[in-house]
Design brief:
CATH superfamily: MFS general substrate transporter like domains
CATH class: Mainly Alpha
Oligomer: single chain
Order of helices and strands: HHHHHHEEHHHHHHHHHHH
Number of helices: 17
Largest sheet: 2 strands, antiparallel
Radius of gyration: 20 Å
Distance between the termini: 25 Å
Length: about 400
């Protein structure tokens, strides 16, 4: 294969995986808007509502175990693993839009959570292997696809639910959130099929597969690496901030400020919109200079912005802060992942990615429930203090981690 063809293949794979990631996150972003409507329809308590997203986090974490194993043991079957992820999400949305029973809602978000994380190990691992000298850039571009999906999902879904009226030209009354949820099955299923048709080259860079025993030995060695464990914890802190803040920002906008699904969607979209530009820039900077500095600055600014929400909790101040927070909310995640990949032996990229996301879920799975209690007692100010305090802990942890490339 010529260098030109090889480069074209790499770029095509990066674009394809990023687009698929974007569609997956379009569905994830939709849940943020659908969630408060589900809560109101079922008369769910704040703690029970947080419990739904804790179940989603737990299933997300657990799915990384088989995802990491399969991604390293079956490197030539990456496209099938990605398709399975999308099919799980499809089934979850079908159940979520069809039932009001709490246990079925838990089943649905468990499937969605399983599918959303099952994507990561094969996709991130493949990109880290295919772009060994530009991990930060490749993973950041993949996350940029996610941020585009997260940005488009809330306002589009909010508009479809709330309806849109532009004078006498356009009058659309909207659909029920249940029908919209079931409708999300279509793009998720279609993405799974397209992955099978067009991304079959994923994993082709592998020269061999790990046996299960080799996988176990490699994983044990990674778990003995204190820096890897520190990065896993740091990623978990970032995930805790994200899940608690975004979840109850949507509830606050609906229950306290009385915003419609469309307006809620636009606010949630702001969290990721700015990151579409900042994420690849931060990835390039982390490749060229130092990952630790990029992570530290991001966490410091996140902490500052989160505490400022205590003062600016509505109007233009709220909008500006949400946008500023969005520059770093997701953007720091691929840098943490790339730092972990720097310490992972070649061929174990799937395992390294899986461990990173398992850590996010293990550290952050209780965060929505804790945030639900805090919100019920201290309202949105409590959420700002809670999330900001976690960011400070992340800053302290990052400052003592000796981050450097070892491959």
């Amino acid at each position: 294969m010529s260098n030109k063809t090889s480069k074209s293949s790499r770029v095509g794979l990066l674009i394809g995986l990023s687009m698929g990631h974007g569609i997956k996150h379009f569905g994830q972003g939709a849940i943020t808007v659908i969630g408060p409507l589900l809560k109101t329809t079922t008369n769910m308590s704040d703690v029970a509502y947080g419990g739904i997203f804790s179940a989603l986090n737990v299933s997300s974490g657990l799915s990384n175990i088989p995802a990491g194993i399969l991604a390293d043991m079956y490197r030539k079957k990456i496209a099938w693993l990605l398709a399975i992820a999308m099919f799980c999400i499809s089934l979850g949305f079908l159940i979520l839009g069809s039932s009001k029973a709490y246990w079925l809602i838990l089943v649905s978000v468990t499937l969605i959570g399983f599918g959303t994380s099952f994507w990561h190990a094969p996709a991130f691992g493949t990109l880290a292997a295919r772009f060994p000298d530009k991990k930060g850039f490749a993973i950041s571009m993949h996350l940029t696809g996610a941020q585009i999906g997260n940005t488009l999902g809330p306002p589009v879904i909010g508009g479809i639910i709330s309806g849109i009226s532009l004078g006498s030209l356009i009058k659309f009354s909207g659909f029920s959130w249940e029908n919209v949820t079931i409708g999300l099955v279509v793009p998720m299923m279609a993405t799974g099929i397209l992955v099978l048709l067009f991304l079959r080259s994923a994993g082709s860079e592998a020269t061999s597969n790990w046996s299960f025993n080799e996988y176990v030995d490699r994983t044990k060695s990674l778990l003995k690496d204190k820096v890897v464990l520190g990065l896993i914890s740091l990623g978990g802190m970032r995930a805790s901030i994200h899940s608690s803040f975004q979840l109850f920002l949507a509830v606050y906008l609906k229950e306290e400020l009385g915003y419609s699904a469309l307006i809620i969607g636009w606010h949630i979209a702001l969290i990721t919109a700015a990151g579409i530009i900042s994420t690849p820039i931060m990835g390039i900077l982390s490749d060229k200079f130092d990952r630790k500095i990029v992570i530290q600055i991001s966490m410091i600014l996140m902490a500052i912005y989160l505490f400022l929400f205590i003062q600016f909790d509505q109007g233009i101040g709220l909008i500006i802060l949400v946008g500023l927070l969005g520059m770093f909310f997701f953007s720091v995640m691929p840098i943490i992942t790339a730092a972990t990949m720097d310490r992972v032996p070649a061929g174990s990229e799937g395992s390294g990615t899986a461990l990173n996301f398992i850590g996010m879920s293990l550290v952050g799975f209780m965060s929505p429930i804790i945030a639900g209690y805090i919100y019920s007692e201290y309202n949105f100010d409590g959420i700002s203090i809670y999330a900001g305090s976690i960011a400070i802990a992340g800053i302290l942890l990052c400052s003592i981690l000796p981050l450097k490339k070892v491959n």
